[in-house]
Amino acid sequence: MFVRRQVIPRLERLAEHFPAVVVSGARQVGKSTLLHHVFGGSAREFVFEPFEDVAGAREDPSLFWRTTLRRSF
After folding, report:
1. Do 38 and 12 belong together in one domain?
2. Which residues have C-beta within 8 Å of that of residue 33, sequence separation ≥ 6?
3. Does 1 share its domain with 25?
4. Whether 28 and 58 share a structural domain
5. Is the pLDDT assigned to residue 73 strictly greater than 70?
6. Predicted local confidence at residue 13, as pLDDT
7. Residue 13 half-sphere exposure, CB side, CA atoms within 13 Å?
8. First-residue to last-residue Cα distance in the chain
9. Owning domain of residue 61
10. What is the pLDDT of residues 17-46, one digit of tens each?
11. Do both 35 and 1 map to the same domain?
């Protein structure tokens, strides 16, 4: 069951004006569910795991983005 959240209109407005919008928060709180509900399959989603990805992004940014694109869903 999806609970409509107050942030949805703001998220939609931001997406109209910016090519990328960041949704961050604690694990398992519904970020992906929110994005899938609002944008369906029309938006690309990237998962950034700070403990795993920061070192890789700093060492080789191009490789980081290529591998992140493959992991996105």
Report:
1. yes
2. 2
3. yes
4. no
5. no
6. 96
7. 5
8. 21
9. 45-73
10. 998 898 988 888 888 889 889 998 788 777
11. yes
